[in-house]
Amino acid sequence: MKGVNSMDANPTPVKVMLHTKITDSGENEDTKLTSDGTILRKADAVYLRYDEMLNDTDQVNTTIKIKDEDITIIRSGAVSMKQRFAPGSLKEGTYESPYGPIQIATRTESMDFKWSENTQEGTLFLNYQVLFQGEEAGYHELEIKLRGEEE
Fold it and tell me: Which of 52, 57, 73, 139 has a 20 to 30 Å separation from 19 between CA atoms?
């Protein structure tokens, strides 16, 4: 995890460009999203925050806590989820659906985060397998590109 040491305690406004690829049973799903967010270094972690609209009325607030050894994604609002990612290990998490809680786990293959204070640009990559209730539910590739914005 490179280039985050000089970040201070004030959030930096960023444009968040999220691209998710999901492969499940030979089917591919490709999702792209652009949102405004902030990036902030606090203690030993970097926090990326942004909102996404699932449709015209349902908003989800997303916080990604990035540490050297793991990443935690917390989503709240229309969808509630908390999931940790650590390369080479299986991590249990929670997903609240309209039908009740669902047990979710991820097996992370790789993760990488870079942020440059100088250029105000960065990327976050996550590759992982998802398991719902213990059953494999697709392979996910998540790429987030960040670009600093003038306040």
Answer: 57
Q: What residue spans define the domains of the chain?
A: 12-148
Cβ(77)–Cβ(96) below 8 Å: no
Helix (H) and strand (E) counts for the chain? 0, 10
Number of Cβ within a 10 Å radius of residue 77? 14
CA distance 92 to 20: 21
**Of 86-90, 99-103, 146-150, where does mean pLDDT reach its minimum?**
99-103
pLDDT surpassing 70 at residue 17: yes
- Band of residue 151 on the pLDDT scale cut at 50, 70, 90: low
* CATH superfamily, with its number, for domain 12-148: Calycin beta-barrel core domain (2.40.128.20)
Examine the pLDDT at 37 and tell me if it is beyond 90: yes
- Nearest residue to 86 (alpha-carbon basis) of 63, 103, 68, 70: 70
* CA dihedral sign of residues 51, 95, 110, 28: negative
